[in-house]
Structure formats: structure tokens, C-alpha cells
């Protein structure tokens, strides 16, 4: 349901593209990605757990794109994408309930035509590789100029890829084989891992995932055995180190 989604389609275009979008950056955009007023604007869905970031992204992109919504967690993102079918999705790595990596994997199923761009503070090579392994088409660090994100959106909409300058990314297929966030775990185990690390009780986790409390406990025990962890504190530390939770 879309009641958890903030919809910003009524924002005035004159409020968008503030300081930071300069003529030099605009001149770098691919001709094939040009968006004129006479054409239907591409649809974008935003996901970030910080309200200021969501509102900033909305204002930045509203002149060129139709903002179909903004969400604060990975599960709401998957639901919104399935219903809105956006052309491009901006997603953070670290989000409540479902991290950006696993959300991106689900987006490929529910919104296969959507182009995924990660917008995140994580500049480490392992995070960049994991994002593209999860299905990303672009990766922009939040320390970049706003013009860089505009260029990234234009490039991925034109069928290309984009990585912030200075980041290390190896596009060779073999380089994408090794995962960052618990590659030895199943999708369900990674979901349980994040929710347990967030401090949620088994009953709540079961409600979120649509499984029984007993099944939650089974997955928790199995993933801790696979990872060689003994306590929830160790599991939480593992989740932070692998980008599933913000540092505490």
C-alpha cells in the first residue's frame, strides 16, 4: 500500500535544481538522455531513511523527472516500486527493515525495467562492487556535487552506467562473484540477520516477514552458526561491518 509513501509530484519545477548544478556538468550529459517538456518525463522513486535527504533529492530532480514517491525503508521501497513501476530508483545502502542491497535484488523481480542508482555515504570498493552485484546501474556518493547525481540519472536513463569519479569499481564479471553482505547466507537469512541486529523481537520479525516465530528462531540459529557468531552483539557488529546497519 502507498500510505507509507511520500508523494511529491506537485512540487514546482522552479524550486528544483538549486546551487551546485552548473553549465559544465549539464554539457556532459548524453544527447540520448535529453528530456524536453514535450516528452513524458521519466518517473523516479526515492528511498532514504533521512527526511532531509529525501526532500533534497526531490528538489534537485523535480525539473527533469516525475517524482512518484519517496520512502524511508527498503520494504516500503519494494512495495512502492511494484505499484509505481518507476523508470529509475534512487536507493541508499543502509535503510531500516531491508538494506539497499537486498532491496535492489527484489527490485529486479518486481520492477525489472527500473534503473537503480545507489546514493550513499559508503565509498569503499566492496560496497560499490556489491551494489552492482545486486543490480545497480549507478553509484553516487553523498559527498559529490549535486550535478554529479543529475549526470548519473541522465546516463543510466540513456542505457549506460555511472560511478562517482575516484571510486574503485571493477566491471569484469569475475569481480562481481564475491559478495559483501553475507554471501553465504540465503535471502531469508539475510533478512532475519538485519532485523535481529536492529533489535527487533522474534514475534515482530515474524510479522514483518510473514513467517512464524519458530521459523525466525530457526533462521537466527542457523545464520549465527554459519557465520560463527555466538551472541546478538556479535551479530550486530557483523551487520554494521557489512553495511546492513549504520555504525553505532
UniProtKB/TrEMBL annotation:
Residues 43-157 form the Response regulatory domain. Keywords: DNA-binding, Phosphoprotein, Transcription, Transcription regulation. Signal peptide: none annotated. One of its GO terms (molecular function) is DNA binding. The keyword Cell membrane does not apply. The modification 4-aspartylphosphate is found at residue 92. CDD domains: LuxR_C_like, REC_NarL-like. InterPro entries: CheY-like_superfamily, NreC/VraR/RcsB-like_REC, Sig_transdc_resp-reg_C-effctor, Sig_transdc_resp-reg_receiver, Tscrpt_reg_LuxR_C, WalR-like. This is Response regulator transcription factor. Pfam families: GerE (PF00196), Response_reg (PF00072). The keyword Glycoprotein does not apply. It comes from the Bacteria. Residues 178-243 form the HTH luxR-type domain. PANTHER family: NITRATE_NITRITE RESPONSE REGULATOR PROTEIN NARP, TWO-COMPONENT RESPONSE REGULATOR.
